Amino acid sequence: MKYYVTADVHGFYTLLHDALTEAGFFRDPEPHRLVILGDLFDRGEEAKKMQDFVLRLMAEHRVILIRGNHEDLFETFVTADEGKALSHHVHNGTFDTALRLTGFERVAAKIRHRSFAAAAPLAAQPQACYNTKRTLFRQVCQT
Question: Which residues contact 133 (CB under 8 A, 6 or more apart)?
């Protein structure tokens, strides 16, 4: 098994896709997987494309996810903080990621504390995966 490894993609789907294309990930005829070492989201503007790509790889059993601090931030955002746009969620990009993943309008989401967990399947499903905080966040999800 061959592994392609990347880290801290932060929602920059096009950059990741281009790097994987250059490395031969999509043409590789041998069995292989992508290992992402945390921080799938926050910062970049392509969260939805990133989510769709990773969900597709998960369905094909071709990705291993290592949980990073931004996954922790998103989980806290949708659970303990109930989707409230607290300053650290805005500063870290978590709130904007939730908006991109759900299509919720910014002002309405701040006022109504929209249910981001139901609308952002990948970012909000750590409970569905084997989670050994900061170690393998291996894909064993029911997709």
Answer: 67, 72
Q: What sign results for the dihedral spanned by CA atoms 119, 15, 34, 77?
A: negative
What b/e sequence results for 56-87 when a residue is b if at least 16 CB atoms lie within 10 Å of its CB, and e otherwise? ebbeeebbbbbbbebbbbbbebbeebebebee
In which residue ranges of the chain is pLDDT below 50?
123-143
Question: From residue 120, how far is each of 2, 21, 50, 116 by CA, in Å?
Answer: 30, 27, 12, 6
Q: How far apart are CA 115 and CA 63, in angstroms?
A: 27
For 58, residues 6+ apart whose C-beta sits below 8 A from its C-beta are 122, 139, 141, 143
Asked whether the whole model's pTM tops 0.85, one would answer no
Strand order in the sheet with 136-138: 2-7, 32-37, 63-66, 136-138
* Assigned superfamily of 2-138: Metallo-dependent phosphatases (3.60.21.10)
